[in-house]
Amino acid sequence: MSSATGPLQARPPGIERIDTPEAAERLAGRLLDPSRGVPVVVITTPSGRDEPWIDTDEVADAVLGLADVVVMPTDSTSWRFSELMPPGTQVFGGAGRAYPLGLEWISDLSRSPLRFAYGPADRTRATDGLISDALAMTAASTGATDTPVRPVTGTVSMLVAPSRAIVKLDDDGLGTVWQELTIPGVPIDHLLTRGQRVSGLLDPVSRRVDIRMMLVPAPDAARYEPGDVVLGRVEEVRPDVVHIALHPGVVVPVPKHRVTSNPLDAMTELFSPGETVVARVAWRDEERPALRLDDIDDDEAPLPAPPVLVDGPPWLTVPTPEPALVEEDRAQDAMPSFSMAPSTESRAAPTRTPPTPRDLPGGGPVRVPAPRTAVSDALLEDTRRQAEAFRMRAETLEARLRDLEAKVREQKTALRREKLRQKNAGPRGLSGNEAEQRFEYEVYLAWRDRIQPADRVRLPLAEYSLGAGFIESVESLDGVDRRKVVDVTVEVLTGLAKDLDGRELHRLRASASGGSPPLTREGGWTAWRVALQRNTPSARRMHFWRRGDEFELARVVLHDEVRA
User: Are 448 and 459 in contact, with CB atoms under 8 Å apart?
Assistant: First the structure.
């Protein structure tokens, strides 16, 4: 996301049409130039047609001054273009593609998706898709403009999902806010609400209103505190880490061990890009929150997500199960069947009749054979039927794909919740030795996660052991999260607890009476007490023994308990 608020850079309007292989060569060279200044939208005309199914005028009007539009036929021109372009980046046959700046789209085809149009039914969908792609690519382009813009204010009068807002300007005119030019990837109803006041820069030609001056600075939008339960959007998933956005400008990496304790789990099996998730802020490091997803209870309500625009709605909402778009069995039944060859009946030639003398040489005027219009019409009709069948099949497959993607997201969410439920259930059923090893492993992971590499020599984990009843007290005492016990253990063993007011670290005394001496035992051990919770009924505490740099964790107890 660009933080600049200047007007979007304008370009001369118009549509460029090319129809020779030489022009295709120049276009390919232009697209592959890493210093190209604006996105380029290439729209192709299907074979046998004079104009594309995609509405070129609507595309040109929408990207007026922001991107170039090129129209190319499907013939030797497009074939030469395809020969010169990298694999997977070509366009022909009536499809369209927007090419962003730079060359990253060559290796990441998702940056330059292909938009298909098989006929009139695809016109709106393909046209809107190309416009959305091109505008999203121009969102970061700023600078001087030849088109005079003027400041305006107004009120949002209508939202046109998924990416437009109509603004009634205070001077009685109308303007349009384009989501792609504000924050790509965030639906318009998560940016603005009806009745919301807006201010921005109006392009009087296109009537676009640039409202990026209303963007909330990213650091201000994500000022969460440790312990907050928050919403985030999955931006990128790798086997060992998931990147979660708390705001379009604040993306936080979350390593696997903060999601699951199972080393065999892969993040790609638990998350999908674009999914909204619930996380907890573990701590803040250099003004950026650190997140974890392994200690969220189902009944914990997250804080409202911050707005992207001043006075705007939350940019994320609590995820709800997505309804299936198409039943798989019905989708299968709906797939049309067709033959690649025209039917025998439609291709039958006209019935021949015996020649008459007038048909023979010298027998009269020479007859010119009539065109075989019946055969041509039949072939054309079959071609049209096949094209319609292809279109119907493509729509059905796209619907099935959306349905399956929704189901995969739901399954990943359910799997993540089940793993969390099992983890929060604790190590009940394990042998004593196994339960202790698990707790020690969790402490090590928390230390590695909490302490930066540069500080690990200065803040090592001290030598420690687990008292005879410690694990049992952790498992049997409700009202405190196991993760909290682990985190406070790290703070005690590294010495951080003594500098944290919330831990209330102090020696445990022999009795609750004033002036009671500290509790000790033979061997030079002294009992200590540290707070796990504050300002809650029956707040929990952890008792431990210390001798120099050695520690023994004793028990997790209620606030009133004074025994070590």
Answer: no
Last-in-domain residue among 138, 162, 192: 138
5: Cα within 13 Å, side-chain hemisphere: 12
Q: Is 355 exposed, middle or buried (0-12, 13-18, 19+ CB in 10 A)?
A: exposed
Q: Would you say residue 405 lies in a domain?
A: no
Q: Are strands 15-17 and 68-73 parallel, antiparallel or unpaired?
A: parallel
Q: Please answer whether residues 490 and 447 qualify as being in contact, where contact means their C-beta atoms are separated by less than 8 angstroms.
A: yes
Token pair of 209 as six digits = 């209103």
Report the predicted TM-score, pTM, of the whole model to 2 decimal places. Answer: 0.51
CATH number at residue 271: 2.40.50.140
Domain end position, chosen among 246, 275, 292:
292
Find the domain containing 554 and state its range. Answer: 432-558
Beta-sheet pairing, 174-178 with 520-521: unpaired
Supply the CATH number for residue 45's domain.
3.40.30.10
pLDDT in tens, 498-511: 988 888 898 988 77
Q: Distance between alpha carbon 371 and the CA centroid of its chain, in Å?
A: 57
Residue 35 scores a pLDDT above 90: no
Sign of the CA dihedral running 120, 331, 338, 90: positive
Axis crossing angle, helix 432-450 with helix 482-494, rounded to the nearest 10: 60
Task: Return the pLDDT at 22.
Answer: 94
Alpha carbon distance 408, 325 (integer Å) = 13
The dihedral of CA 528, 531, 535, 540: what is its sign?
A: negative
Quote the mean pLDDT of the chain. 79
